[in-house]
Write a structure and sequence with these properties.
It is built from 12 helices and 8 strands. By secondary structure, the protein is an alpha/beta fold. The protein has an 8-stranded mixed β-sheet with strand order 1-2-4-3-5-6-7-8, sandwiched between helices. The radius of gyration is 20 Å and the shape is globular.
Length: about 300
Amino acid sequence: MSDSSLSAIPLRKQPLPQLKQLAALATLRGHMWVMSRTAPERAAARLATLFTTPPRPQVRPWERAAMAQARYTRVRFEALGFLSVYRWGATSQSHRPKVLLMHGFGGRVSQLSGIAQALASAGYEVVAFDAPAHGQSGTGQAALPDFVDALEIFAAQEGPFEAVVAHSMGAAAVMTALRRGMAARRAVLIAPPSYPGSYLGQIGRTLGATEQVIGRTQALIETRYGRAFDEFRTPLNATALTQPGLILHDVGDRQVPVEDGRAIAQAWRNARLEVTEGLGHTRILRASHTVSEIQNFVMTAL
């Protein structure tokens, strides 16, 4: 069929994005299934690229409005390059207590802007940055070690922090950084994962990769970064912490199961778990109840 005959067919001006995503996933799954069984090394390399390439979901109008209140700069994070940094509330010259926010993989600071506004209104200076290959910090590939490195570089410049608030994989990175010495008096984890290997396995199996390919993929990523996945086991890192912690996790979270939050809370002797319902993995970030819970926890005297 020629291009001219195609133009004669009435088409939707805006194809349903969910249908397009499902079709792309089906195609990718077919390719991965075949490659895993005929060229496992190529399949592992492809899966490693997919695992370290963050998705870039559309920015919502409410995020743009909230981010308009932030002060924006670009800061060099050593070998990681220039990243986008945001501030709300008091200026650094005012010596107000600081709260650091950390988004998750495929996320961006703007998803946490409701939390930022609430804490700024309570008198805190709120600081955050888009991780490498996320948000306004450019495109490309990134993984948990990049998050941890960026956190440690930023903490050396901006810390210590009154509190850190982190979502999803950002929470795993924060817990690793805290265990390694990043200074914060308390921490809030929202939908924290227990272990990156579990997420890799979930993605690999969804795409039809064999267990051999999934294992090889993990080895490739570990070799690339020179750091084992075991370094980022959040419950294990939690056992080394003494500061108070608040863990928020939705019972219906389809990306990170609530069992991960429970395991972390059990390992962290000074943390409590709050389980929500009906908020999923991202709506929990701007629900009024959870924002108030975070604000109250940060403001509670030690």
